[in-house]
Design brief:
The protein is of the alpha/beta class. It is globular, with a radius of gyration of 25 Å. Helix 1 packs parallel to helix 7, helix 3 runs parallel beside helix 5 (86-94) and helix 15 crosses helix 16. It has a six-stranded parallel β-sheet with strand order 3-2-4-5-7-6, sandwiched between helices. Bound molecules: thiamine diphosphate and magnesium ion (MG). Residues 411-415, 438-440, 464-467, 490, 492, 494-498 line the site of thiamine diphosphate. Thiamine diphosphate is lined by residues 411-415, 438-440, 464-467, 490, 492, 494-498.
Length: 598
């Protein structure tokens, strides 16, 4: 290679540095040692973090973005190393989170020869087909000189429009082939692109008209508001028009849940005031939210929403999501933040805007009545005592122990539903969870990414015993990189969310959903606290509700990696004002209230 040339690996690494990527999370293999070598040369500018399972790297990259807003990269080898990654790609894709996955592949000279770890039986070096459904796009440069174009285009695809993960699949030889004298500059290609497109101005006027004329308006927010950094503008509009704000699970934290206009989660396990206000609203302004089945009570009318007669204004950067599941009175393709600013501008010129805010007091008083009923219904649960710890009480104890700036990364399972229902998040990143793909391990591993993104904030993973055991390798990573994160293992000795379905929908025919000792039949799990200690991490066991809050406070204060093995009951499921249907086997009933029939 001529002396003044950079090779493929060097161009990728240099481009990442130019895009201010501080970390590459990944795992080695023969297929990517050349890329790691390029990272080695630049280790003063980009830190390489080595993990013990590729999925962990993907979840870390994902949560790093959710906390910092900065996309990062992963690196994985050819064959199995990269085939361990797609679950994290799919998770990021469905939750619209960008990261760049640099995957190794076999040398181009060996394409279609069935070389070691080549996926070749349908098409040569065919990792791209493996991940086609799980990322925005795959780039596979097959010559060094193709790398500069691929990296700048990959980055652009990842961050523009609706963000999402992108794969850069690089054959072994291409990492070391001459690529360019200079790396593309972000300021020439990507730094000056804005996707903050506004809505059709006529549409903005109509949206204002509809909201001013509404008697029972509700704003529903999804994660587009959080990751689109539109939370301040959301608050301004809600306060200006005195419209209550409900959220999908992904929109949790878009408004401080203690704000008087904060309604709560709309979902099968959402509180009465949120579901009942949303399903009886005359106008629903939906911002950056996609109406999935869990938000929408499986789209059965009268539980989460009743559209129509509710008139839906649906605003999203991705028109694919508009009118996917509900008819729209007004659909607007726009960046949510720009749209909110357009709305606020338009309101400046409306003389009657103040009147509508006054008229709203009746609606808000009605909602206050719903809230009172719900609060009275749930109040006893916060005081329940005993061993195992009652789950509602457990959330209450964890939530109250955490300072305002704490980041909780939840895993997937019944514990997530409890957290969504009873945590009181105050910031957009107070409670991070996966809602689209829902892979176990997201919270177990994601908390490490949170800590890299926010080293001075307490980072806590609340995760199921099933998921923790699946990804216990994170203990080693926390030690190796001195990451003072806390795992609260929600230990219910079961894949409890799924066992709950067997109990609720299948007449209690339980199989393959709990963990038992073969001789005694007693609930079994490894001693997670001892496992943590064996890894060099502080570990404690908590059996009593009254001890949980102190244990969490101590773990956070210790400022070192910490595991709390919390013995939590699973005989109760978090019931709310919505429902969930598993077509063919049935539909749950709301725990509170009924179906609204206009
Ligand atoms: C990788 C993966 N495998 C399987 C599932 C299906 N699943 C969803 S929740 C769940 C149970 C999780 O058990 P645990 O981690 O103990 O959490 P719990 O529900 O008990 O709180 C399973 C198996 C999944 N979401 N992801
Ligand atoms: Mg469990």
């Amino acid at each position: 290679m001529p002396k003044n040339m950079l090779d493929g690996g060097q161009v990728i690494v240099d481009y990442l540095i130019r895009e201010k990527v501080p970390y590459a999370f990944g795992l080695c293999g023969h297929g990517n040692i050349q890329f790691i070598d390029a990272l080695y040369e630049r280790k003063a500018d980009i830190k390489t973090i080595s993990v013990h399972h590729e999925t962990v790297a993907g979840f870390m990259a994902d949560v790093y973005y959710r906390v910092s807003g900065q996309p990062v990269a992963t690196f994985t080898s050819c064959g199995p190393g990269s085939v361990n990654l797609p679950i994290a790609l799919a998770n990021a894709y469905l939750d619209s989170v960008p990261f760049l996955a640099v995957t190794g592949n076999i040398p181009t000279s060996q394409f279609n020869r069935g070389a070691f770890q080549e996926l070749y039986r349908h098409y040569q070096a065919d990792f791209p087909s493996t991940v086609r459904t799980m990322c925005k796009k795959v780039f596979q440069p097959t010559r060094g000189e193709m790398v500069p174009l691929a990296i700048r285009q990959a980055w652009k695809t990842m961050v523009t429009g609706r963000p999402g993960p992108v794969v850069l699949d690089v054959p072994f030889d291409v990492f070391k082939e001459a690529a360019a004298e200079e790396t593309p500059k972000p300021e020439d290609w990507n730094a000056n692109i804005s996707c903050r497109c506004g809505a059709d101005p006529e549409g903005v006027k109509r949206a204002v008209d509809m909201l001013l004329a509404a008697e029972r308006p509700v704003i529903l927010v999804g994660q587009g508001v959080k990751y689109g950094t539109a939370t301040a503008d959301l608050l301004a509009l809600a306060e200006r028009l005195q419209i209550p704000v409900a959220w999908s699970a992904s929109g949790t934290g878009a408004i401080n849940s203690n704000h008087p206009l904060a309604l709560g989660l709309v979902a099968r396990n959402g509180p009465y005031q949120a579901n009942h206000a949303a399903r009886t609203a005359d106008v629903l302004l939906a911002l950056g939210v996609r109406f999935d089945d869990r938000t929408s009570s499986s789209w059965l009318p009268g539980y989460s929403f009743t559209i129509p007669p509710t008139k839906l204004i649906h605003v999203d950067i991705d028109p694919d999501e508009i009118a996917r599941n509900y008819p729209v009175a007004l659909g607007l393709m726009a960046d949510v933040r720009t749209f909110l600013r357009q709305m606020l501008d338009e309101l400046q010129s409306r003389k009657n805007a103040g009147d509508s805010a006054t008229a709203r007091q009746k609606w808000l008083a009605t909602i206050a009545g719903y809230r009172k009923q719900w609060d009275a219904y749930i109040a006893p649960g916060f005081l329940e005592d005993g061993t195992p710890i009652p789950p509602q009480r457990a959330v209450h104890e964890i939530d109250k122990a955490l300072p305002e700036d704490a980041i909780v990364v939840s895993d997937i399972g019944v514990h997530h539903n409890w957290l969504l229902q009873y945590c009181k998040p105050r910031r957009p990143d107070s409670l991070i969870g996966s809602m689209g793909f829902g892979p176990m391990g997201f919270g177990v591993a994601g908390v490490l990414g949170a800590k890299f993104a926010a080293p001075n904030r307490p980072c806590v993973s609340v995760c199921g015993d099933g998921a923790f055991f699946m990804h216990a390798s994170v203990l080693g990573t926390a030690v190796e990189y001195d990451l003072p994160v806390v795992w609260v293992v929600w230990n219910n000795y079961a894949y409890a969310s799924i066992r709950g379905l067997q109990r609720g929908y299948l007449g209690g025919r339980e199989l393959a959903t709990d963990f038992r000792h073969p001789q005694t039949g007693a609930p079994y799990n490894p001693d997670f606290a001892a496992m943590a200690r064996a890894a060099g991490i502080a570990g404690v066991r908590v059996d009593r509700a009254g001890d949980l809050s102190d244990a969490v406070k101590m773990a956070v204060a210790a400022n070192k990696p910490y595991l709390i093995d919390a013995n939590i009951g699973a005989d109760k499921n978090p019931g709310g004002a919505g429902v969930w249907e598993l077509p063919g086997i049935g539909q749950s009933q709301p725990a509170f209230g009924g179906r609204y029939q206009p």
